[in-house]
Backbone:
């Protein structure tokens, strides 16, 4: 889930009751944006806030507002599925609305968010349709064979379809292995995953596609507390799947909403 980290201007969280809409549920820690439904078509009517996710990355978090701070469902009163201009709605939820808020959110390493690699050989990792110009990104192998699983490498050079890692893996990877990419600071983040509570790895093709989510800092938790990811410290790490008492390493971002309904607009 996404949570408040700090405000670039030093403000405290500004929490307000805001109209929200969803056909099923909105959860605590979910990014929200202004709805885009035609005002004469019911649903959010272009007024209520909706899930910040869109399958088209550039459409995620347009006119974003912030993060929902409670869970509302169709069992709520009013139901979160109540259209705005009805006598039964809308549903209201508590939302952080600071235009310069920075939120901490996890980078998903779930199977649904990784991609199959083609192979690795010495320091070369080949992934079909890997984006070019991603020097300084990280590649992590979450669900793979022994010797590959749990490895983290810094990408020192990249081309379309392949990249050079800071060092070879202890075992060459094959098409049975998978990878996720972790983005560096001062870049647009990957798209949200469908619940709008975490960052997805996308398909390794959309990493340079603007999303309206800017990474302020990239973080890692390998069982030694949350650390800023630094090339000089975190390169050539292995067995991270055993970190945190065997639950695995965690990656996080500090995220700024670049297209904010009440402030920064891009």
Residues:
């Amino acid at each position: 889930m996404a949570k408040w980290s700090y405000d670039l201007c030093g403000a405290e969280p500004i929490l307000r009751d805001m109209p929200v809409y969803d056909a099923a549920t909105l959860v605590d820690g979910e990014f929200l944006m202004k709805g885009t439904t035609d005002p004469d078509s019911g649903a959010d009517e272009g007024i209520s806030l909706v899930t910040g996710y869109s399958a088209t990355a550039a459409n995620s978090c347009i006119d974003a507002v912030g993060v929902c701070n409670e869970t509302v469902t169709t069992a709520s009163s009013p139901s979160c599925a109540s259209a705005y201009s009805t006598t039964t709605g809308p549903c209201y939820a508590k939302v952080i609305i600071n235009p310069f808020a920075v939120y901490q959110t996890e980078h998903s390493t779930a199977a649904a968010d990784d991609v199959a690699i083609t192979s690795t050989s010495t320091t070369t990792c080949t992934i079909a349709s890997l984006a070019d110009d991603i020097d300084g990104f990280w590649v992590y192998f979450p669900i793979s064979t022994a010797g590959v699983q749990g490895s983290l490498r810094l990408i020192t050079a990249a081309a379309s379809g392949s990249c050079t890692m800071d060092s070879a893996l202890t075992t060459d990877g094959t098409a049975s292995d998978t990878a996720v990419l972790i983005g560096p600071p001062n870049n647009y983040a990957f798209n949200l995953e469908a619940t709008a509570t975490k960052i997805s790895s996308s398909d390794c093709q959309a990493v340079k596609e603007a999303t309206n989510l800017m990474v302020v800092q990239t973080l890692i938790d390998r069982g030694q507390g949350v650390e800023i990811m630094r090339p000089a410290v975190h390169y050539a790490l292995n067995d991270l799947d055993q970190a945190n008492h065997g639950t695995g390493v965690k990656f996080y971002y500090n995220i700024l909403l670049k297209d904010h309904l009440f402030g920064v607009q891009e």
Remarks:
- The first strand starts at residue 3 and ends at 7.
- DSSP finds two helices and 19 strands in the chain.
- Helices lie at 231-234, 243-246.
- The chain has two domains: 3-105, 107-209+218-254.
